[in-house]
């Protein structure tokens, strides 16, 4: 997908959606101070270009019973990334995995209901013929949760001739 440059109005719409997730589009447009058609067109463009990937609820995995989390670095066999991708996707406890540079090849974020359940996930990972070595670091607490708005705000292009009244 082509890189999308967001302007201050786009960011204001995203911020309003984040702060008022149950509001309808008419209400979001009112909060931001634009016409509903403008808000609709902007949000549809951000969906079409992949900037907005969903409107589902955010889930706190700790509150849902998966309070043990870890980051696992995998060193994998040469050329085994596709196989590792399939294996990781089949493990429900893998929240996300990223191919990386440096000593490890893949960094995984893992969640489990207990230390024993985490150990089972680690054993499953180490049984993979594609995994040469793994290193685990248990997360004690979340210092900065997943967020995007500060980054988007910091790099937003000036609005398209319109100064949103939001914020």
UniProtKB/TrEMBL annotation:
<dbReference type="GO" id="GO:0043200">
    <property type="term" value="P:response to amino acid"/>
</dbReference>
<dbReference type="Pfam" id="PF13404">
    <property type="entry name" value="HTH_AsnC-type"/>
</dbReference>
<dbReference type="Pfam" id="PF01037">
    <property type="entry name" value="AsnC_trans_reg"/>
</dbReference>
<dbReference type="GO" id="GO:0005829">
    <property type="term" value="C:cytosol"/>
</dbReference>
<protein>
    <submittedName>
        <fullName>Transcriptional regulator, AsnC family</fullName>
    </submittedName>
</protein>
<dbReference type="InterPro" id="IPR036388">
    <property type="entry name" value="WH-like_DNA-bd_sf"/>
</dbReference>
<keyword id="KW-0805">Transcription regulation</keyword>
<feature type="domain" description="HTH asnC-type">
    <location>
        <begin position="6"/>
        <end position="67"/>
    </location>
</feature>
<keyword id="KW-0804">Transcription</keyword>
<dbReference type="InterPro" id="IPR000485">
    <property type="entry name" value="AsnC-type_HTH_dom"/>
</dbReference>
<dbReference type="InterPro" id="IPR019887">
    <property type="entry name" value="Tscrpt_reg_AsnC/Lrp_C"/>
</dbReference>
<dbReference type="InterPro" id="IPR019888">
    <property type="entry name" value="Tscrpt_reg_AsnC-like"/>
</dbReference>
<keyword id="KW-0238">DNA-binding</keyword>
<dbReference type="GO" id="GO:0043565">
    <property type="term" value="F:sequence-specific DNA binding"/>
</dbReference>
<dbReference type="InterPro" id="IPR011008">
    <property type="entry name" value="Dimeric_a/b-barrel"/>
</dbReference>
<dbReference type="InterPro" id="IPR036390">
    <property type="entry name" value="WH_DNA-bd_sf"/>
</dbReference>
């Amino acid at each position: 997908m082509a890189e999308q440059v967001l302007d201050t109005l786009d960011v204001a719409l995203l911020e309003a959606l984040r702060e008022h997730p149950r509001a309808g589009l008419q209400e979001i447009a009112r909060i931001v101070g634009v016409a509903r058609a403008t808000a609709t067109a902007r949000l549809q463009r951000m969906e079409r270009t992949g900037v907005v990937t969903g409107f589902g609820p955010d889930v706190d995995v700790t509150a849902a019973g998966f309070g043990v989390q870890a980051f696992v670095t995998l060193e994998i066999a040469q050329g085994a990334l596709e196989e590792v991708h399939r294996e990781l996707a089949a493990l429900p406890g893998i929240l996300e995995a990223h191919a990386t540079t440096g000593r490890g090849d893949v960094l995984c974020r893992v969640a489990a209901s207990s230390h024993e359940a985490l150990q089972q996930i680690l054993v499953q990972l180490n049984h993979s013929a594609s995994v040469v070595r793994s290193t685990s670091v248990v997360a004690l607490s979340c210092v900065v949760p997943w967020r995007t708005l500060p980054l988007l705000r910091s790099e937003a292009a000036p609005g398209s001739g319109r100064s949103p009244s939001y914020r």
